[in-house]
Specification:
The complex is a heterodimer of chains A (109) and B (489).
Chain A: H1 13-22, H2 29-46, H3 64-67, H4 86-89
Chain B: H1 19-28, H2 33-51, E1 54-57, H3 59-75, E2 86-90, H4 117-124, E3 128-133, H5 167-174, E4 180-185, H6 191-197, E5 200-203, E6 223-228, H7 231-241, H8 259-264, E7 271-275, H9 285-300, E8 304-308, H10 316-331, H11 350-361, H12 364-377, H13 383-404, E9 409-413, H14 429-434, H15 440-445, E10 448-456, E11 462-469, H16 474-487
Parallel strand pairs in B: 2-3, 2-4, 7-8, 7-9
Antiparallel strand pairs in B: 1-3, 4-6, 5-6, 5-10, 9-11, 10-11
Helix pairs in contact in B: 2-3, 5-6, 9-16, 10-12, 10-13
Classes of the chains: A mainly alpha (109), B alpha/beta (489).
Chain lengths: 109, 489
């Protein structure tokens, strides 16, 4: 069971860097200060939720369970069907050999 | 351009004709669908440079459809319900082969290889699709100032915002640059612009309209819905796009009512709930006065009006901004420069390519929300933020259900204030988030609503009343909205 930290404490530059890594979103140096400020302001505000005792409340991930709508969570059969036409998709790609998407190398030798 | 040549705001506002009027003219051959489309394109050419409503036009497809309709009319064939009606489509909805930017630079040049289900259904019903409408980037925003392609100006007052994120969709109807439009609503993005621009906007129940072909922001909150100049026409569009779709696993099998016919039914005898929490501090006095006139009109129409309690309302905004941003951080992970859209040049490694493409391609608000969402889901914080928010979400939904056991519809203001000036709120993200205070509750609970024009402020700014109904009770919401519309507040 993961140790929760609660909604305490300020967001630090290290937090911003860790989140940037998780989100694959490197901020330019001049953006980091602003992000720190904004995140702290917003997280201060959402801490209001701590006023509520939700110990006995189940999380609501899908509102469909409330509406009584039938057909929720139906799956199609596990059958191979045609997907997108390569000839239509590949012209959109930034770099391609028309079969694969080409990207910079993954592993440094 | 000389100041004396600058158009006054009044010249932009124009009310589209009703579907019934247009349908009659097209069926009788008095007006050709092709000429109607041409008329719209002329008006777009005139007004778009100032208003920035459309990002791209789909003329070839529009005129091809219009010819089909005109051939059917000439042949005396029965015409489908939206035959020849010229519509605009928000740029987060896929139209095959046409640009779909979602208001972002990261999708500049991207053309979806498929149609959104709602688009397919509109065309099957005879609609002529004019082009793609400007919006806040990835539907994140309440003013359309977050569009990477410039803001949309409110036709009522061009120094003011049209609202967001479906600002282009609302403004298009207000300026008669489309007869009706499609937008999307995650936290208020149809309802609030409808209120700001003085048009009708519909929030269908979650699952009522297929999300297939909608560029996802928050998958448990996103809905596609129509804007129109009047309640009956909005109900008609909903009837066309609603219904189960096997391509959207969250779309509902619930039967689709004849919403237009439902809207014709008088509101007499319906019980209307008014929640005190939506009329407290922070509500502009003129907005309050306008909504109170709307409530009086409902009494006059024979409705019973009573107070209802929604005590967790004040927790809705923080709940929404945790749930929505968490889901957005997952949905926007796909924009990585690999398969489509913007790729940052000169990246030595794959990892750099991802992070540079995203940093350069996304705007500030999108980055802020991805950060917040990622943080709220990350190890050590998931329980405290995301899980907590989902629990509060259940409390909010349950109190709506309890209220709907007592009343048929709940009426509220849509926004604490009318359309604000461009640039007024862009300095403070939190101030912008608080603008959503009356709309995020229905978003989180999955219920439906209709925003109907309900008077204006002294300065002439539109005020919209939000009419909420329980899951799949859009018919009731339309009935109440018609009664308010008829009162011509």
């Amino acid at each position: 069971m993961r140790e929760g930290r609660g909604m305490a404490g300020k967001v630090t530059v290290e937090d911003v860097e860790r989140v940037a890594e998780l989100a694959h979103l490197e901020l330019a140096p001049e953006e980091t200060g602003r992000m720190l400020r904004d995140l702290n302001a917003i997280l201060d505000y959402v801490a209001e939720l701590n006023e509520l005792d939700t110990a006995d409340v189940e999380p609501l991930t899908q509102v469909s369970e409330l509406g009584g709508a039938a057909g929720f969570n139906e799956l199609r059969g596990d059958v191979l069907e045609p997907s997108l036409d390569r000839a239509v998709v590949m012209p959109q790609a930034p770099e391609t050999d028309q079969v694969f998407f080409k990207v910079p190398k993954v592993i440094e030798r | 351009m000389l100041l004396s040549e600058a158009k006054t705001a009044e010249t932009y506002v124009e009310k589209p004709k009703t579907f019934a009027a247009l349908r009659e003219k097209i069926a009788s051959g008095q007006v050709k669908a092709a000429d109607l489309a041409g008329e719209y394109y002329e008006r777009i050419e005139k007004k778009n440079p100032q208003l920035n409503v459309y990002l791209s036009l789909t003329k070839e497809r529009a005129f091809a459809q219009a010819s089909k309709i005109d051939a059917m009319a000439a042949n005396g064939d029965p015409l489908p319900v939206l035959a020849g009606i010229s519509l605009g489509i928000k740029d987060v909805l896929a139209m095959q082969g046409a640009p779909s930017t979602a208001g972002s630079k990261i999708l500049q040049g991207y053309r979806p290889p498929y149609d959104c289900t709602a688009v397919t259904r509109l065309e099957a019903a005879g609609a002529v699709l004019l082009g793609k409408l400007n919006c806040d980037e990835f539907a994140m925003g309440s003013s359309t100032e977050n569009s990477a392609y410039g803001p949309v100006r409110n036709p009522v007052d061009i120094e003011r915002v049209p609202g967001g994120s479906s600002g282009g969709s609302a403004a298009a109807v207000a300026a008669n640059m489309a007869v009706a439009t499609l937008g999307s609503d995650t936290g208020g993005s149809i309802r609030q612009p409808a209120s700001f621009c003085g048009v009708v906007g519909v929030l269908p129940t979650y699952g009522r309209v297929s999300r297939y072909g909608l560029i996802a922001f928050a998958s448990s909150l996103d809905r596609i819905g129509p804007f129109a100049a009047n309640v009956r026409d909005a109900a008609t569009v909903l009837g066309v796009i609603a219904g189960h779709d096997p391509k959207d696993a969250t779309s509902s099998q619930a039967p689709v009512d004849d919403y237009a016919a439902e809207s014709d039914k008088p509101a007499k005898g319906l019980r209307i709930g008014v929640p005190g929490e939506y009329f407290a501090q922070g509500l502009d006095a003129e907005v309050r006065a306008a909504i109170e006139k709307g409530i009086d009109a409902l009494r006059a129409a024979g409705c019973t009006v009573k107070p209802v309690a929604l005590p967790h309302t004040r927790y809705a905004v923080p709940t929404y901004y945790l749930v929505a941003t968490a889901e957005a951080s997952a949905n926007l992970a796909r924009f990585d420069g690999v398969r489509y859209g913007y790729r940052s040049p000169n990246s030595a490694t794959l990892s750099d390519m991802y992070s540079h493409s995203r940093d350069e391609g996304f705007g500030a608000e999108v980055k802020r929300r991805i950060f917040l969402g990622t943080y709220a889901l990350s190890a050590g914080y998931y329980d405290a933020y995301y899980l907590k928010a989902l629990k509060v979400r259940r409390l909010l939904a349950e109190e709506f259900l309890r209220a709907f056991a007592e009343v048929d519809a709940i009426v509220t203001p849509t926004s604490p204030f009318p359309a604000f000036k461009l640039g007024e709120k862009t300095g403070d993200p939190l101030a912008m988030y608080l603008a959503d205070i009356y709309t995020v509750t229905a978003s989180l609970a999955g219920i439906c609503g209709v925003v109907v024009p309900c008077g204006k402020t002294k300065a002439g700014l539109p005020v919209g009343m939000q009419v909420l109904a329980s899951h799949f009770r859009e018919g009731t919401a339309f009935r109440v909205a018609r009664a308010v519309e008829a009162a011509e507040i």
